[in-house]
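We treat protein structure as text, and this decision shapes the records that our systems exchange. Because each token names a local backbone shape, the row as a whole describes the fold. An entry from our holdings is shown next, in its original layout:
>
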Amino acid sequence: MSLHCNRNLATQRETFVTHLECSMTGERYEADRLHGLSRAGRPLLVRYDLEGVRGALTKEALAERPHDMWRYAELLPVRRVENVTSLGENTTPIVPLAAMGARLGASQLLVKDEGRLPTGSFKARGLTMGVAMAKELGVTRIAMPTNGNAGAALAAYATRAGIETIVLCPDDTPEINVREIALQGARVYRVNGLIDDCGKIVGEGAAAGHWFDLSTLKEPYRIEGKKTMGLELAEQLGWRLPDVIFYPTGGGTGLIGMWKAFAELEAIGFIGPERPRMVAVQAEGCAPMVKAWEEGEEHAPRWEGAHTVAAGIRVPKAVGDFLILRAVRESGGFAMAVSDDELMQAVEEAGREDGLLLCPEGGATLAAYKRALEQGLVKPEEQALLFNCATGLKYPMPDRSKTIDRHQPIDFASL
């Protein structure tokens, strides 16, 4: 297995990456080399020559580009075009929940529907970037823990890039995820534990040289893929940001990435200093960020006995906990946990009233919004953006059908 850098720089495209930086200490690391966590054991962040980007990129030029996540090339780390490992990462729509909004008295209730991406979830953003950079830096074997959708995205992109892939998942991971991971070319193993138990095994294998560890925030580039959600929604809303964002938070890569994206957009002159309030949404059965936020802590201890039907946010311990909490606090936002009953009710309401099928994690953001509205934490007239992180088609649905016996008289009025 080769984990070293092996690139032909003659085929570079112009990029603006200057270095990597420890998110806790600020220590600088050389770009274009393979890195995991910093020496402090914390995530590394990609830094750019933002003055250079400001001089090279205009809103007008951006508007002429294809509507996919790669349109933001100046703010992305991939240097060689041939390393872009794409399955068609289109711009995802922002969909109003008009009927529910009217019932709740909320005039600007919006959902960014990430289920339209390849592999059916927002994990496609982070994993296409992580895999592209792994390819660029010469990685030939990757392993990762997953609750389902991230493993599916990794399998798809790594297979496309020709990288050998091993995925470990909790033994109660949704069956459809386990099967799609295998069908898309990875070796998948069920582990009798939670995602951090899987992550421990992956980490041990990486330390022994068996593979590169692409776990959440344990390499610098998944954040860069996920931050395109923030770049994209700003552009879609006419270069202004919503008043409040409700984000389903497990490992928190997307929340951290969006907060980074907003700072970069301000630095290149595309937006002003205004920021949305960031709301980290968790399930009551696994709410380490909520507990840490309520107690004023910078780090969140491991949540014991984690359980929720929303598998994507069942993350007992997040390596980027302090970055999540920092973004929430700097934005004037908050963290909130909802029950499984609440989030599944929200899934049903969105489908029944507005025809939008949310995943359970997306349902959690709607349930949190409803509670926040009741508690006066958001105002009905504020523009609220909820994230539906995956297509609801991947999840079990209740059978509400009835039967018709075609051999008996049919009571059409009753239908």
In short: Confidence is low (pLDDT under 50) at residues 1-11. The chain is about 35% helix and 15% strand. The first strand starts at residue 17 and ends at 22.
